[in-house]
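Q: Convert this sequence to structure tokens.
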Amino acid sequence: MDRMVADRADGIDIAFDRGKAWSKYCKELLNFVSRRMQLELDHAKKVHCLANQSKIAINEHFLPLRDVFESSFDNDIVFCEQTYDAVKHIQDRFIKVLVMLTHIMANFEFRKSLELRRDDHERQRRALKNEWMRVTKQVKDTQQELLRARSLLGTRDDGYRRAQESFIRTESTGPAVGAEVVRRRKELERRRKNEEEAFTKREEAQSQVEKLENELERREQLMEDTKVVLNSAVLILDVEFIV
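A:
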């Protein structure tokens, strides 16, 4: 099951939806069992009270069929007592779970209801989903950063190309004479410096793109690994809830 879910592009979403549906399913079952037991218990209490009152009321010995009705009352009382025992057994067996915790200094026992287990299941499911959202957000953020870095690299490429062309044009200009020689030399030096700065900026942009490409590859692999782990964790979580 986990392999089938892991192979799907939307597998992690399916797993989380399944976990959410399972949590709701357990909640509804617990609600039904609790309310049904309470109804049975309330009914048994009323019948028990009615049977006792009726048994006390017919205390004359000469009344016809008195033994038959008293026997019926006794049967109702026994049935109600059995209902009490059954409800108590269900509460102890299915609603409450005995959990043992070992501590360094002492051991103790406590009862944990299925409602608490369901809440714990829901909390763990949310934690897994938050982890998945965190990992996918990292991938999306890196993708956005890479797009911006590539755009900047394109700008730096254009800037370096223009600076290079400007330097070449200045360098290929005809020979200067007189005061023009000094001005030409300064202009050439300035354009050479501009070219070097543009080249440095382009190299930095290229380095940033390569860094983000590697980071994106790493995070995408991490996302795939996390997807497999979370799929298994969600399925195990559902199984553990009913064990």
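Residues 1-114 form a domain with the Substrate Binding Domain Of Dnak; Chain:A; Domain 2 fold (CATH 1.20.1270.60).
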